[in-house]
Structures are given as C-alpha cells and as structure tokens.
Amino acid sequence: NVNSISNFDGRIWVCTDNGIGYFDSDRVYHPLKECPMTTSIDRIMMDHEGNLWFSSSRQGVMKIVKNIFTDIYKFAKLDSVVVNSTCLHGENLYIGTDVGLTVLDGKYSKVSNTVTEMMDGVRIRCVFEDHDGNIWICSYGKGLICYNEEKDEVTVYSEENGLAVNRTRTIMQLQDGSMAVATNAGVNIIKDGKITAVYNESKGVSNPEILCLAQDDSGQIYMGSDGGGIFVVGKSSIKRIGIGDGLRSEVILRMVNDPVEDAMWVITSNSIAYLKDGKATTIRDFPYSNNFDLYFNSRNEMWILSSNGIYVVDRDNMVKNEAIEYTYYNTESGLPYVSTANSWCELTDDGVLYLSQSSGVSTVRINSDSFDNSTVKLIVPYIEADDELIYFDENDTIKIDSSTKRITIHPFVLTYTLNNPRISYKLEGFDDSSVELKKNELSNVIYTNLDGGSYVFTISVLNAKTGAVEKSVSVNIIKEKAIYETVWFFIILGILVVLLVVGIMLLINKRNTQKFLKKQKEDQKLIDEMTTVFSKCVDMKDAYTNGHSDRVAKYTAMIARQLGKSEEEVNQIHNIALLHDVGKISIPDKILNKPARLDDEEYAVMKTHSEKGREILEAVAINPELALGAGSHHERYDGKGYPLGLKGEEIPEVGQMIAVADTFDAMYSTRPYRKQMPLNEVVAELKRVSGTQLSPRMVDAFLEIIYSGAFNDINMNSSANDEQNAG
To answer: SS3 of 668, please?
Structure first.
C-alpha cells in the first residue's frame, strides 16, 4: 500500500507499508536499501536544512541527513579491512589492503585481473600510477610490482634482481621520470626497467628504514626515516635533518611540498613542522599530535588526516604559527572511518580525496565548502528562577524577583545535520569574556547570586576557521534590586525627611511627566516630519517611482485600519512604510534609474536595498521598529523571498502589510517598463499570488478596501495619464 507521495529536490518520494523509495528525473524508481525503517511508513517531510524526516506508525521517526563523506565500501558491499593505499587508474580504483589488492570499476563492482590474483593475501603498502599509466604496487614481502593494465603485463622487482629488500613501503616518480622506491633497507632508483642506484647505510643513510619520499624544486630527494630524521640526497652528498635542525621527532611519517613557497611540510610521530632552507619550524598550537598525512585543496587549505579524524586549517594561518583556527571532522560529522597510519590516498585534479581508512575507503570533495552555518537556528525560550520556569516576553525580556538565588538559562542551537558548529555565549554584566565550545558540549548555563540589575545573555554561532560571529541571539534578564541595594535603605531612619522628599519628588515627577508628554508629542511630530522628508528624498533619487513611498505608506495605513489597529499604531505603521525603500539610497543611480529591465547582476545589486535599509534604520534608537519594514517587505509568504527567506508568520506583520501595498502600487502605477494595469487585473493578480508571494490575511483585508470603493479605476487612470502628459 502506498501511504504518501511527495516531491522534494526533484525526486518523487514514495512511502509504503513495506519501504521507502523515489523516482528520479528519468522516472526510474530507486528503493532505499539498508534502511532501518521498513514497515508502515506514513509520511515524509523536509526541514529547513534539507534533511528528510520519515514517520512510521510502528517504527517511530527516522531522519536522513546529507553527508560530505561517501562510504565506498558500503556502496561496493565490501567487508571491513585495513586500507593502506588508494589509486585511481581511469575509472578503476585500486585499493591496497592488509590482505591483498582490490580493484573497483566506476560502478563500484569488483574487477579481477592478473595482479589482483597475484597479490591475494599479500599486505599492500602503497599503490601508485606513473606518468605512463603503469601501476606500481609496494608489497610487504613480495617486493615491488609494476603492472600495465592495458597490456596485462607484470614486472616484479625483488632481492633477486637488485631490490634492497622485498619489504617495500612507498614509491614516487622523480622529475627525470625515474622511480624511487622506499624499502626497509634503503631507497632504490629504477630507470628504464632497471635498478640503477641504491641509497643505504653504505651511502650515508644511517637509518635505512624509509617511510616516505619527496623531491624539491631543485631535484633533491628527501627520504623520511623511521627514527633517523630526514636524509636529503643532493648531487654530490647526503645530509641529515633531525632534532638539532628543529624537528620534534625523527620518525617522519610524511613530507609534502608547500604550494606557495619552496618549502616542505613534515609530519612526524608527534608534531607538524614547516621545513625551509634546511631548518624546521614546529607548529606550536596545532590541536592534535598523532597525525598521519596532509593534502592541499584549491584554496590552499590543509586537510590533515589524524588518528581521531580530519582537521582543516588555512595554510597561511599555519605558517604564521599563531593560534590555529580549524574545522574538525570525526565520526559525529559523518566520517565513516578514521585514517590508517602510514597510508596513501588518491587526490584527483578536481579535488576528490579517496581516504585510506581503518575499515574501508571513503571519499570527500576537499575543494567544496564545509558545513554551512546559515541554517542553524538559535533560541533561548525560557529560564528557571529557583526552579520556577519563566518564559521571555515579546521583547525577549524576563524580570525576576530580587530574592532569586539561582537562574538556569536554557539556550538551544538547532541543527539537524551532521554539523557540530562552534558556538559561544556570554552574560553581559557578569561574564568577563565569552565561553566557546561545540554544539554537542552545550548544556544549561547556571548563574547564582546575581546582583540586582540588567543583564544580556547572548549566544552566537562562530565561523569554524576564523572564530568570527556569523549569527547571534540575545535576551534580556532584569533582576529587581533588593532593599539593601537601593538608596532607600540608607535613609529609612529619616522617615519625615523621606516623606518630604517623596512629596517633592512626586511634584517634580508630575511636572516632569507633563514635560515629558509634551516633549513626546513634539518628538513624535518631528519623527513624522523627518520620516516624510526622508521618504521624499528616497523617491526623488528614483526618477521612475516618484511618490511611490507615500502611496505605499497610505495603502499600508489603510490595511492597518482595516485590521483594527489603533490610530497610534496606524501612525507608526505609516512611518515604517514611508521608509521601506530607504535602502535604495545605497543603489547606484545607473541601476536605480535604468529605463529598462535590470539584468541578473543589476537585479542582485538592487535586491540588497532591503538589507541596507534595515541596517540604516536600526541605528535609529528612538524608534527601532522603523527597520522592520525596510528589512522584511521583500520576504515572501512561501519563504522564497529575501533577504532572510522568512516564511509565513515568521515575517513581521508590518512587512506583510507593506508587501501587499508595494505589490499593489507596482501594478497600479506606471513604470518605465510597463503602464499602469487596470484595477480588475490588479485584483486578479493579488488573488493569484495570495498564499505564495503575499499573506492571505493581508490580501483579503486590502481586497475588502478595494471592494468598498476606496479606489476609482477611471479617476486613477486619468490621474496617471495626466502625470505622464505633464512629464
């Protein structure tokens, strides 16, 4: 039985009594395999982050989230095994493991050939493709294998034909095309199919057990040993780099050329170092010591593979050797397995990294952006005051009694992806500095014996690499002052004086109140006048919408009255609507006054006026609500608007009103690219976009105004034509 059918992200999802599946764009059905929910699946929904949620009347709720890591072993249905190397040859992926060689084709099906049969049961340490397309396989016991897949030819290099020892670890191709192979007894050079040189103890390599190789721009060969440091082979000599040259350990796990300078990054058994001009600088504050390998992406970010996950750091930040900002991935972030020590990974030209791991292979696109924090939501809905639950009011404020001894703040960081964002919190007025931690470390925040006064609790999401605040939420906590915290405590003995003072203060307060009310009226009048002047300035800047702000404000006020708002509220809403387009003062005149339709780039610039308007008006402390209209009048009821993509009743009410008025005026006035539309067509269009672009409640209210006869189509058209003829 099919219980529900839904369309998400271009796929038609089907929930049935015995499973879940979807139809792709080619109408091919794909059942979800290895899915734990298999019975009585009733519904599917997608949340604001793109995660899919399924409900079953028998099995509860299941969530499917996006993962930047792809588990190749899961797709190929391979048994878990320690993987030491990955190498991509055409569409075939060569995987070297502790128990042999596995080859997968482009569809993750196993491929058998001469070399897979030959290496069955053999420990493979490294698989490498040279410039001619030959596959080189370093084994631990069978020597070095060179395999030509196209010709199905195998060449074996072993102790019998000159190889230093049959236990080989890694191989690289040198600048002259020859191959350098690292073994437990030194390094052999192979050229034109013959072993031409060996670097071992007799040549000055005091520790010949070589774990890794590299070559600098000048052609020098760097050999990283298991306890003897780095041996550098020059044209006429071999020199050694060790602890005396700045290394913290002489066990060298990896050496990687720097993409910017003629330098090299060195990973040792307990540190990471930057090697330049023969001197090593150890990175002091890297957060972890047991690291294995590193790779650079297209943004010169370093992906450092370690025994507990993956660290992504900026290369320049590492070179500065100061505080390290990083992004961290582990199994909680979707990483299927941890990396294998002394392993080798394929990195393709387009940034796909094939990770050699403890139980299989997974891939990640290291050139892509990491987790996006834009969908993370922050809320602080309530606190506990001595175990009494208190919710914040509409102004995000809580008032607590002076007798309160302990408050417990309940902050929430809402994300349903694998993202574990970096966050911080601080209670202004009490904490000297912010507390930084990961989302999964966040718990309730407790403060005891706060003094009476006002506090602001702020929780923020931080950029994983830079630590900059990406978004934040603040709430106000006001604790009443106890009697001993007030001045009254010190004058309680002078009761007669107090009565006199109180009388005088009441008289003064009465006079001040009268002055204040008078001043308030004057201020409101000034605000109204300045708002009108400012809106006219905006309209004068836009030659094609002169009078637009005034008309939108009038229409918005009409909607407010229709909804039963008080005159004071109507006046406030009128002022907000007057300044809804104030952000256009930041738009270049050539775009704002362009007589034709805007292209995509110009439209993108024009769209910024909403956010710019909000920023401008937020600075008006005397009337902070002015920013609401400017910031939200281009939001859509279906959530497809801008700048924040608010949906439904998330959009401020005044923004919903202005959106209707703005849309009406856009159709009911002449623009450079279109004449004024007849009223009946305008009404039809308003009905059409109700519930998608516009709030149904606001549209209905405005239609009632129109139906009441507030607009005369003939007169309005005549007025518009008169204005055109006059121009």
So the answer is: coil
Tokens of 514: 């009268």
pLDDT value, residue 716: 39
Please give the C-alpha separations between residue 269 and each of 93, 288, 292, in angstroms, as whole numbers.
29, 11, 8
- Nearest 10 degrees: Cα torsion 13, 16, 18, 22: -10
708, 709, 710, 713 alpha-carbon torsion, rounded to 10°: 140
Q: How far apart are CA 692 and CA 651, in angstroms?
A: 13
pLDDT exceeds cutoff 70 at 611 = yes
CA 677 to chain centre: 43
Three-state SS at 125? strand
What DSSP element (H or E) covers 583? Answer: none
**Spatial contact of 563 and 606, defined as CB atoms under 8 Å apart:** no
Let me know: does 168 contact 139? Beta carbons within 8 Å. Answer: yes
Q: pLDDT class for 714, splitting at 50, 70, 90?
A: very low
The H or E element that residue 656 is part of is helix 653-667
pLDDT confidence band for 34 (50 / 70 / 90): confident
CA distance 138 to 123: 9
Sort residue 699 into left (φ over 0), alpha (ψ -120 to 50) or beta: alpha
Q: What is the mean pLDDT of the chain?
A: 88
Q: What residues have CB less than 8 Å from 361, skipping those under 6 apart?
A: 72, 73, 83, 86, 93, 95, 354, 355
Q: Please name which of 224, 450, 212, 438 lies closest in space to residue 342, comparing C-alpha atoms.
A: 212
What are the tokens at 162?
């000159």
Q: Are strands 110-111 and 124-129 parallel, antiparallel or unpaired?
A: unpaired
Q: What angle do CA 679, 680, 683 make, to 5 degrees?
A: 85
At a CB cut-off of 8 Å and minimum separation 6, what does 164 contact? 183, 184, 185, 186, 187, 188, 198, 200, 208
Inter-residue contact 124 to 96 (CB < 8 Å): yes
Q: Which of 140-149, 449-458, 619-628 shows the lowest mean pLDDT across its residues?
A: 619-628
Q: How far apart are CA 475 and CA 393, in angstroms?
A: 10
Strands 69-71 and 361-365: what pairing? Answer: antiparallel
Q: For Cα atoms 674, 677, 682, give the angle at the middle one, nearest 5 degrees.
A: 130
Please provide the DSSP assignment of 356-425 as one string: EBSSSEEEEETTS----GGG-EEEEEEEEETTEEEE--TTSEEEE-TT--EEEEEEEEE--SS---EEEE
CB-CB contact of 27 with 11 (8 Å): no
Pick from 257-261, 300-304, 515-519: least confident: 515-519
The CA distance from 63 to 52, in Å, is 6
pLDDT band per the 50, 70, 90 thresholds, residue 481: confident
Q: Torsion angle of alpha carbons 565, 571, 574, 580, nearest 10°? A: -110
What is the DSSP track for 250-269? SBEEEEEE-SSSS-EEEEES
**Rounded to whole angstroms, how far apart are CA atoms 370 and 74?**
23
